[in-house]
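__Protein archive entry__

___
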Amino acid sequence: MIEKLLALSLLPLLGSCNYLADRALDAIDPFRVAIGVGTVGGIRGEALGLLDTGIYFGLKPNAMALGLRYGRPYFVDLGDGRLVGDQSEIIVNTSVVNMDIGQGSYAYGSRNVAVLPALLSWVDATPENYAWLVPKEGEDYDDYHWIWSPYAVKNVRYAQIHAFDIELDLAILGYLDMGFSPGEAVDFLLGFLTIDLAADDNRL
């Protein structure tokens, strides 16, 4: 009987510990800073869902990274075979006028380059329980959705929270990542009211 009463008396304290731990983790979630080495080069910038552009090429292996990316720590670990892909989303449209295939000539050509902002991005919204089954047709099983599609909310919460990130990557074989996430900052503030915008509480 005494053990049960003691356990019940500790429940509020346990809840309080989880609350404090969640607030501490949410406090570091808005920040990104990491260094590493790879076959990378160039510069990439992203700001508030309105700009995502740059010249960037190569691979950024997690095995040679050290730092913090929005609450997720990275350490130099040669056993980590994952790669980070932060290349810009650039659309190139080439047009040729009065093409003469026989002569191999044309009047003039043009090439337009457009940048796809985060607000217009499409993201992979495949359900986590997809389980490699051939699904019935329907929105729930489409691979890609517009980031703000109502059908995709439950599967792309992370992408929505980070749609307004401000980031800068610089790379010449080694690379430096810097970033700030307004979405994660809002999640941190709302967390004090027990509103879990990013759906990432109780991580511990």
Q: What stands out?
A: Residues 29-88+163-204 form one domain.
